[in-house]
Batch of 4 targets.
Target 1
Amino acid sequence: MAIVGCLTAAAAGLVIGPVLRLLVVRLAVPSGEPWRRACPACDSPLRPARAALPVLSPAGRCIACQTRLGPPPLSVEVTAVVLLGLLAARVQPGLVLTAVCWLAVCVIPLAYIDAATHRLPDLLTGPAYAGTAAFLLAAAATGESWPRLGRGLLGGIAFAAFCLVLFLISPSGMGPGDVKLAASLGTALAWLGWGALIAGALAGFLLAACYGVTLLVRGRADRKTQVPFGPFMIAGTFLVLVIAGVG
Ligand SMILES: [Zn+2]
């Protein structure tokens, strides 16, 4: 039964992967620019003429001119398949699984967008929080415990407040997008427990620090180089959710 759930979730990742890639291509634009509507190379629209027509090939190339757009081929798709499959194996019951899968589907493109442009658009951080909170509310209303929901919501606020303080102290290290992202990641982590929230947050900071040090050692960065924090917060959160499991 568990294996069926994992395969179903992984299959959902396979279907949704190309949609997430298109989201990354459209939203990964420099600050102040409008969302990308057309292929930057050939100007053909990034919106299918008919619903069934793809605008990007499975290898992530523009169907019209074959220019590769967005992250490396299959990276977004494989991330979606692996993460949704792992979550299905480790998270119960169904509505809590739906909440964390919703969160994953929103934050996978955010990680790639932040890595490319140092931005975390509200267009995704907003739904990430609203959907996660709504599904956890539904889980609490249908038999899961209300205190867990209360702890989850409080945890989300606490993580966001912590990141807000860091942002106010050092605006170059963290952005307002990170604060909004922390609200949804913190909610999912604190549903699991306060220990999970601390572990997830710590894992994110450690991963970011390791990455920063690696860049420094290799001479690819100096002390002023900005490291996008979103991908590491997301990785830390899902590392803890998958390793600890929810249920
Ligand atoms: Zn093109």
Target 2
Amino acid sequence: MRPFKLERYFAAIEFKAEYVLCASDCEGLTMAELLDMASSGSRSLWRGLKLGYTESPGHAGLRSEIAGLYERVSPEGIVVAAPEEAIFVAMHSLLEPGDHVIALTPTYQSLTEIARSKGCRVSAWRLEPGPRGWRLDFDRLKRLANRRTRMVVINFPNNPTGAVLSPAELEAVVDFARERGLILFSDEMYRLLEWDPAARRPAVCDLYEKGISLSGLSKAFALPGLRIGWLAAQDTALAGRWLAMKDYTTICSSAPSEILAIIALQNLERILRRNRGILRRNLTLAERFFGARRRLFDWIAPRAGSVAFPRWRGSGSVDRLCRGVLDRKGVMLIPGRMFDVRDGHFRIGLGRKNFGKAMARFGEYLSA
Ligand SMILES: Cc1ncc(COP(=O)(O)O)c(C=O)c1O
């Protein structure tokens, strides 16, 4: 497998930078904040928890909370795993060498790299910036398909652009997959982070009998340290295949994390309200910041999620910009090449409480 560019970049800088202005998660909840939300039932689950191995598919109570997020998925159609692990497990259990995969680009690298490393051919279906936001070419999707195509991979709300499909576009992707009998793997890690409810789309696992939704607590729930995510599908036979692979990754998830995840899901609306509030405030700051510097940046507003992908139009490369802001102001940005995008884009994260201070430092760098 080729190195995971984005994760290596984070590993080198994240814990040294004063301001991480490019994080994709929302401001992490503290242990005390989460435990304060616990009902008396989940509090006693927490206190009485034995730190033994747990059920491989995930705690039954957790899977039933997760199934409650969907219309057509039962707890038997769910396997709990760390989100990154879930991508690994799904790709390894569903794909064979020689298969062809069509994957939305740009996106999180493992959504393409794991299939590629397994000997699959991966074709990029590219999101392009346009005057009214990020656009996809549906004729191109049709042209990319061939008789070996087995899977289509999408990721909306998208990391890094914040793009969302329209209802008609989502229907078109589902129809495309259904007509050809393809698996539709939908990374929905940023779903539920729609500050405008009109941007919320149904989960692919509810829309399509061969659809798989990946979700988890890392982004929308502000709990990446729990390492809890899941795969969800209507077809319960898939869970058996995922579990056969999970035996070679973690076998089962962390016992304390599962109980904390139950508490989070039982308090979903409260946690989402907090996170969407942070995002809304930061989005207003971002719009003001980039709006006042139109000669230096193209600002393509995200529709949902916790990241955006503006474009640098000033002098020098975007890599030089990112390096300069880090070296002189201690502010971390991510250049687009970490997503294989090389035309000046960079990622910012909208989920942190110190966003305003970090943007002020960024502004100082630009005016120096
Ligand atoms: C689109 C997407 N999918 C999956 C993941 C993996 O999530 P985790 O880091 O919690 O394993 C990320 C993390 O950034 C992501 O952005």
Target 3
Amino acid sequence: MDRFSIQKLIRERLFAEQGTIRREAQNRAVLAYPSPYHVGMSSLGFQTMYRGLNEVPGWSCERAFLPDDVAAYQRAQLPLITYESESLVGGAAVIAFSVAYELEIGGLIDCLELCGLPVLARDRSAAQPLIVGGGPLTFSNPLPIGPFVDVVILGEAETLGPALLRAVEGEPNRDALLRQLATISGFWIPSIHGATLGSIAKVEDQDLPAYSQVLTPNTELSSMFLIEPERGCSRGCTYCVMRRSTNGGMRLV
Ligand code: SF4
């Protein structure tokens, strides 16, 4: 495996897509999925955040995925690059991970290593990208990602994700930014809050439903336009990831 074979694969996948967003902006964020493309592109939450973050003035948001063969990347010392512009993920101002469940934390760590970034937040400097965690895991068990990220959005990120990018642009001082975010409900800042989790963020009903941005044949739910007619579950079974979602039970659209 070499850089050219990776670029060829990425370009073939992009060629097969409908709805790819290509955007020039002053600031660059990356939305990263800690599982391969085939898995990530069936995530409606990932697709919704891709669209929402690209609507923030002054920002572009490109996608990156855990490589299909991480070991081959590591052997060849290849860096993680984005799909839209094949830019280095590690060069973005913000890298936001959508984590579905605990087993994907290994993928998050692999992605950080492929970016050439220290895995632990405490070992990174303010000159390095702000690492953000979010996704379904934050409903059920966010604590395990705490050591690896600078900021976690707990729960529904459709509103707080764009707010985070605006805050990053408005406050260049990393410590001041984290202190500012720590005061906002829905953000968990592990370096400030420790193991104390706040409330789960809730998107306004008017911003539902979530729906597909990109259609591709190269995913599990291939070439399907997905739409979320209801969110959450009304039952709250204690063993289920849905039990904390979503802010009062099932929300019908
Ligand atoms: S297992 Fe989960 S999705 Fe199923 S009824 Fe219980 S809470 Fe709802």
Target 4
Amino acid sequence: MVGLPASDENWRAQCQVQFGMPPKTDLRRLAQHNGAVVGVIPVNRMTRLIQDLPGQPHIRELADIGADGRGAVWYEFRGSSQQGRRPRVWLKVQALLTLTCQRCLSDMLFLVNETVQFELFADENTANAVEAVDEGDPDAPEPLVADGPVDLVQMVEDQLILAVPYVPKHHACEPAKTSAGEPVEEVKRESPFKVLEGLKRGSK
Ligand SMILES: [Zn+2]
């Protein structure tokens, strides 16, 4: 069964101090202070992400978040600055998204649980130069040009879009079932012509 990791329950509870859209944030300043920004955003506010997905549960306030957590996106930005290296920011994102299985075309739950590390640059040229050196190193942080306040929601949404599989599929698709959970059974019905014949005979 796909679900949010129980081991991160406390982490998600801490994120829930801030609900809704966070203000734009200067990530370089966040890194300088070794600060953090945490929060929860309704997935339906991420229009680029949901445009090709089936309907996600509507969350208008914290109390709307159900036991399985669908419809909510938890995030944490954590800055770090150390002597002798560029400022960095870690981003952790968790969400349980509803996707459409491309084999049976029914809904499937998909867990996004990502942590990315960004190295901050003041300008594009330095970022490109360092990216060229780091190319091929899977542990190298992502270069990010941060020369002012950035939209945190956009960054969270980008990570979700990258995490969603291009062709989502269940590991094993379920056979079709009725709403009561019974396997679909064909009901034998009398041919309408036979019924009509019976009526004719009866009327004579
Ligand atoms: Zn399926």
